[in-house]
Amino acid sequence: MQSVAEQGGADQSLGWIGAGRMGTAMASLVLKAGYDLTVFNRTRAKTEPLLALGAKAADTVADLGPCDVVFVTVASSDDLLAVLGGEGGLLGSGQLPGIVVDCSTVSAEASAQARAMAEAKGVGFLAAPVSGNPKVVTAGRMTMVVSGPRAAFDAVEPYLRLVAQEATYVGEGELSRLVKLCHNLFLGVMIQSLAEVTVLAEKGGVRRADLLNFINNSVLGSPFSRYKTPNLVNLAFEPSFTTRLLRKDFDLGLGAARSLEVPMPVAASVHQRLGEAIGHGMGEMDFAALVELEAKGAGMELVSESVDVDDGLHPLD
Predict the structure, then answer these.
(1) How far is Cα 234 from Cα 208, in angstroms, rounded to an integer?
(2) Average pLDDT for residues 284-296, to the nearest whole number?
(3) pTM as predicted
(4) Cα separations (Å) of 54 from 32, 34, 37, 171?
(5) By the 8 A CB rule, do 300 and 199 touch?
(6) So which residues are the catalytic ones?
(7) What integer is the mean pLDDT of 242-262?
(8) Among 118, 156, 196, 297, which one is most buried in terms of CB atoms within 10 A?
(9) Residue-level pLDDT at 316
(10) Could you tell me the CATH superfamily of domain 4-173?
């Protein structure tokens, strides 16, 4: 990735709200690029990895008010509205940031509320949901989709490219939220399809590692199928993205489909499978655990193949 200086960006003061797995991975790239960053998280201990890299800790969200640009990475629509407009929120402070960049996955309705709050205070608001997990971020392969005022996007694009391989601007308002929901609907459909064909092949006598090696090296292979292969082969379900969080995004995505009168029979079926997986205690596991649910339906009990599989997530130059 190019530095901000190489891309012509100004060195402004930066703030960050949210130090979960994704927020920490993304903010780490800003710090490793040599930029000052002030970080707030409700659970202060979660900021420790960032403080070790040189970040400054904010005691309250309002302490980020003097920052020129504030990134937000929180878990839900309610969290976004709370950190921006709740009691002691960012937009209620005496000083206000110039631009807020929200990288969370939230509903278009919540995003529109957040945008209205920001614009009422003269603060630019960009909806910038991301594609990837912490390992994808660390490898420099994360992407993001952005909507909002074009001038605000142009102003912060150099900073976006510190954390994302690509930042795609798609227009005004909440269009990026719809794009991200479409992305995550496709994500769920892809993992369910991989689970189905993997179980079918294994029940017929083919090792999961061999099937997936063939797929990954065919025209159907993708970075996604390759980096989920270790999960499917070795039944490693330490979450990069939980089944419960994916179900939340399906709730939002299918809600958008209903409002726009778009039938989505395949996604609706996967939505039911996600609920079934959560009912089987897989809610906090990586969503690749759908392969175990598929196996149960086929009368199979999977075991790890204990194969050293390349996930393809090598850092980019």
Answers:
(1) 9
(2) 97
(3) 0.86
(4) 9, 9, 8, 35
(5) yes
(6) 180
(7) 94
(8) 156
(9) 67
(10) NAD(P)-binding Rossmann-like Domain (3.40.50.720)
Return the DSSP state at 275: H
pLDDT tens string 209-221: 999 999 999 999 9
For the beta carbon of residue 60, count every other beta carbon within 10 angstroms.
12
Neighbours of 75 (CB within 10 A): 16
Positive or negative, the Cα torsion across 123, 124, 127, 129? negative
Outline which parts of the chain fall under CATH 3.40.50.720: 4-173
User: What is Dmax (Cα atoms) for the chain?
Assistant: 66
Residue listed under structure tokens 């599989």: 309
List Cβ neighbours of 65 (8 Å cut-off, separation of 6 or more). 90, 93, 94, 95, 96, 97
* Mean pLDDT confidence for 236-259: 93
3-state secondary structure (DSSP) of residue 45: helix
Decide: residue 98, CB within 10 A, 0-12 exposed, 13-18 middle, 19+ buried.
Answer: middle
Amino acid at 222: S
CATH number (3.40.190.10, 1.20.1250.20, 1.10.10.10, 1.10.1040.10) of 178-297 reads 1.10.1040.10
Q: What one-character-per-residue DSSP string does 227-240 give? A: HHHHHHHHT----S
16: β partners: 39, 71
For residues 202 and 197, what is the distance between their CA atoms, to the nearest angstrom?
9
Q: Helices 77-85 and 108-120: crossing angle, nearest 10°?
A: 10
What is the Cα–Cα distance from 194 to 293, expressed in whole angstroms?
Answer: 12
Q: What tokens does 29 get?
A: 């790239």
Answer yes or no: are the C-beta atoms of 278 and 247 closer than 8 Å.
yes
Render pLDDT for 184-193 as a digit per residue (tens, 0 to 9): 999 999 999 9
